[in-house]
Design a protein that fits this description.
Number of strands: 0
Shape: elongated
Largest sheet: none
Strand content: under 5%
Number of helices: 5
């Protein structure tokens, strides 16, 4: 099960890099602070789709994949929305420490989400805890 856990972790890390740094567009970023703008939902959807691919490649049972992907979509969206609310207006040139602290906290919380997802994926795959 260690190899499965490590494979999931690497898969989620790669997915996160692709979704956050390669596929995220300006309109996605602009929509994160509003429940009525589609950008934040689209961004969370890219993350959910990427996670579905990782989980399916790891042969996690389909019901668990569905539950984990829905949970990630909701949590990812809400984390990004909260980041905009709490860090909106921070100028990285004026207050670099605060800007990077908020960015780092956001990334830490996303990583913690993957730890939880891996735990439940392993349980669904029959790992004994």
């Amino acid at each position: 099960m260690l190899s499965l856990a490590l494979g999931l972790f690497v898969g989620f890390e790669l997915k996160h890099f692709i979704a956050d740094y390669l596929l995220q567009t300006g309109w996605m970023i602009a929509g994160k602070g509003s429940f009525v703008q589609p950008g934040g939902y689209a961004h969370a959807g890219v993350h959910a789709l990427g996670s579905a691919i990782v989980l399916l490649a790891a042969r996690i049972p389909l019901p668990a994949v569905a539950a984990l992907v829905v949970a990630e979509f909701v949590v990812h969206y809400l984390l990004d929305h909260a980041k905009v609310l709490y860090s909106g207006g921070i100028d990285p040139d004026e207050d670099a420490q605060r800007f990077w602290a908020m960015h780092g906290l956001d990334q830490f919380l996303h990583q913690a989400t993957y730890v939880v997802m891996i735990y439940f994926a392993l349980k669904a795959a029959g790992a004994g805890f």
